[in-house]
Amino acid sequence: MAYQALYRVWRPQEFADVVGQQHVTKTLQNALLQEKISHAYLFSGPRGTGKTSAAKILAKAVNCERAPVGEPCNECMVCKGITNGSIPDVIELDAASNNGVDEIRDIRDKVKYAPNEGRYKVYIVDEVHMLSTGAFNALLKTLEEPPKHVIFILATTEPHKIPLTIISRCQRFDFRRITAHDIVGRMMHIASESNVVFEEKAMHVIARAAEGGMRDALSLLDQAISFSQDQVTVEDALTVTGSIGQDRLNRLAQAIYRQDVSMAIETIDELLQQGKDPVRLTEDLILFCRDLLVYKTAPNLEESMERVLSDDDFRQLAEEVRTDQIYSYIDILNESQQEMKFTNHARTYLEVAVVKLCQTEPKAVTATASDISDLQQLILRVQQLERELKQLRQEGAVMTSQPDTGAAPAKKASRGSKDFKAPVGRIKEVLKNATKSNISQIKSRWGDMLESMNRQQLRSLTALLNEAEPVAASNDAFVLKFKYEIHCKMAMDNGKLLETMPSILQELTGSRYQIVGVPEEQWLEIREDFIQQQDQSEASNEEGQPPKEDPFVAEARKLVGSDLLEIQD
Predict the structure, then answer these.
(1) pLDDT tens-place string over residues 192-208
(2) Chain segment 492-507, per-residue pLDDT in tens
(3) Nearest alpha-carbon partner for 278 in 233, 343, 225
(4) Domains along the chain?
(5) How many CB atoms are closer than 10 A to CB 406?
(6) Res 487: pLDDT
(7) Which portions of this protein are annotated as coiled-coil regions (predicted)?
(8) DSSP per residue, 312-329
(9) Which of 118, 240, 308, 559 lies at a CB distance of 3.0 to 4.6 Å from 63, suitable for a disulfide?
(10) What is the DSSP letter of 144?
């Protein structure tokens, strides 16, 4: 019989053999035992992670003569027939070559027929994302309500290309990349069963090169077995995968860290003369730096390292190098890797990158005023406000501790302690010319104005306006009431605020308004005083002159007449 590749010989025949997908196999086994089998499944995930194998195992389990079972027996005639492909009840389709409407219509016409030997007809559609739009539409209704004896299993590596109407009709299982640890364990089992002599480190090299795919790992192992003489060694694995030995990477990284340009270039030259690809070498260096950073910041996560195994040289380098240097190394290597994609001189870019790495100096950690973030500025401002508030409380405590010479003098002293005096004349002028349209216009765009200030990185100024509210506005100015006197004082003393806010309001409303700030306590007094003055002015009209009627009442009188109008104050 012709030689078969390892991944074909060792294709999983039961769920226990599917490596690294316990979240999928456990769910399917429970569904089989409870006989809660869905009519359609969608298996998605990277290549070589067991999607098609799991689909065939599920097809055997639902048709097994001993069903319901969590694992197919692989001994009955049905299980053996599905394994060797002699039973027509399990139909495998490659959607890449059968992606037309006619093929799907043929399936739709044949699903009505009962299975020949098993309990279910199972359609396994591989690379289902390759189907055309018309084919998906033809499959839609059949997939939603197939006959009771039909199960669809769709497999894909690109689920985002499948219409949502198809996905919503399936139970979806996402297959993950298999960890290097699981791949090594499976390969060691296969090599032992196949009587292959190997070095354990060679298995780690192959597993890291497979990038999470079991099929890729077994293909590389097959190549390494063919390349080797009597034993699969680390050198064999490095040669087959095109990877670089950890000792070479350690030596190159040490030369870069010690800024030994000649040693680094010499090491690069040796590797390239051995046939290593400059792009692959750059990628290996990036992964080495990544593993260096992981080991330095979280030494307990050694299993998550992708490129290296921690040895003495690696641990020593991790202790010496600083994290900011590693960040710089990764940035330079990543930039060079991007540039290599568009050039025919990849070696030159690699050598230039290595020289840059050797000349990288550790960044001095300095903190200047310009580096302080907005949050830090806000914290400093809050601390300043707390100091000022504490000072005001102390002054108030000193004033209350003075001998009380009478109610009137004490009240006068209390008023004299205020630091901010609102401009009463300007406020009354605004009230005299105030209109409802102006104040409504400002209030309607007040939120937009605060948001605009936040976008301009003026959060510290916006904080002063959180408790502020526009209360009156004329054509050229508006009164801004503050809940706390200290906020009003800080706002009115801030030139940037007085300059920025009118500009933003002009952009939003089309009118430029000057700001007149007033604390809430003083605002109540000024407004009451203004109302009293208005009442006295109206009362001082000449005798005999009829009082001026309210415009609203006059308009109502015109509409309904005096007989039907009743005025209540």
Answers:
(1) 998 889 888 889 888 88
(2) 888 888 888 888 888 8
(3) 343
(4) 6-174 (3.40.50.300), 177-242 (1.10.8.60), 244-361 (1.20.272.10), 421-532 (3.30.300.180)
(5) 8
(6) 81
(7) none
(8) HHHHHHHHHS-HHHHHHH
(9) 118
(10) H
